Automatic annotation (TrEMBL):
Name of the protein in question: S-(Hydroxymethyl)glutathione dehydrogenase/alcohol dehydrogenase
Pfam families: ADH_N, ADH_zinc_N
GO CC annotations, alphabetized: cytosol
Cofactor(s), by name: Zn(2+)
Presence of keyword Zinc: yes
Family affiliation: Belongs to the zinc-containing alcohol dehydrogenase family.
Claim: Transmembrane is one of the keywords in the record: no
Keyword list, A-Z: Metal-binding, NAD, Oxidoreductase, Zinc
Amino acid sequence: MRAAMLHAVGDDKLDIRDDFTLAPVGATDVRVKIKATGVCHSDLSVMTGLLPMPLPVVLGHEGAGEVVEVGDQVTSVAPGDHVVVNWTPACGACDRCVGGQPYLCMHYVMESFTLPRFRYGGETPAFGMVGCGTWAEEIVVPWQGAIKIDPEVPYEVAALIGCGITTGVGAVVNTAKLRPGATAVVIGCGGVGLSVIQGARLSGATTILAVDPLTSKHALAKKVGATDACTPEQLTEAVASLTGGQGFDYGFEVVGRSQTILAAWQATRRGGDVVVVGAGAMDDMVSLSAFNLMFDGKTLHGSLYGDSDVRRDFPLFAGLWKAGKLDLESMISSRIRLGDLNDAVAALRGGEVLRQIVVF
Ligand code: APR
Ligand code: ZN
Ligand code: ZN
């Protein structure tokens, strides 16, 4: 089968080849035929080395498809079911899972670092990004990695729920628990940032300021719910005019850089909540005033996968889309083929695109 693989960090091009095979489906595994998969910034971050992964690696982690085979012990899904791929399959038994934070379970994430589920050119093993590798025609995942979804939800919409939507909307409804009537600033308006904006609109924010250096992103941000938009250079002025200089109730960082984390921190009011959604570099340190950290009473949250329990939240986000409350179509900037992924990655580096969706 066909898949797109990265050989080494720093490579510009993916190796898109047709000679992949999959590991056999174990007793608790599921084989999924991928029907749609998105191009997320985290895929690019693996290519640049910002997100370390074992190599070589089949990229892609935002995907949806149809179950084609299940192991003997799998009862959660059956062949023919439509599923969204979950890149934090939770074991259900560790302290984090039992404590209600399944998105922090490391069991299967660590397993994916030692268990290559792909082979190419005969016997050479390849890993799947965060245990997935959805830039492939088929994947094998543990049963917790394939979440059943309403078959009326189109695959391309379901794919978006697999990462961008859950990460972004979840950061608002689960991490920040934004209160109706609140004000919010969202720094970075890619696929994930626009999902944060939608989450803030759904939660009843009255002012939502979208910040992005690319003015082409401002119109899109307003289309999905931002009330105002500006460039990073205009942020201080916007804080003054929109909040009387006090700062926003909530600040969301959706770029993945210390500089933008600081910008979100500074644009948030005393007592406000700052949520870091972007995935930054391991050695990119954030420096905050020790006095202000105490005196300003702000809270700094990291948000991984939108603090979501995907078994609850994937169907919930699908329901919001069906009810016309989540605009997922506007997030798709183009539909492409698996063979076009090198061009898609180049376009993502350029910054002008939103979600490019590979359809099969
Ligand atoms: N201030 C504001 N926005 C910025 C800045 C900045 N200084 N620098 C870049 N941006 C904008 C880009 O112009 C782009 O619109 O951030 C946006 C990033 O969008 P994408 O590349 O589409 O990234 P996305 O897939 O949305 O992911 C964003 O969330 O999940 C994480 O790993 C992911 O760190 C990444 C982040
Ligand atoms: Zn992603
Ligand atoms: Zn666990």
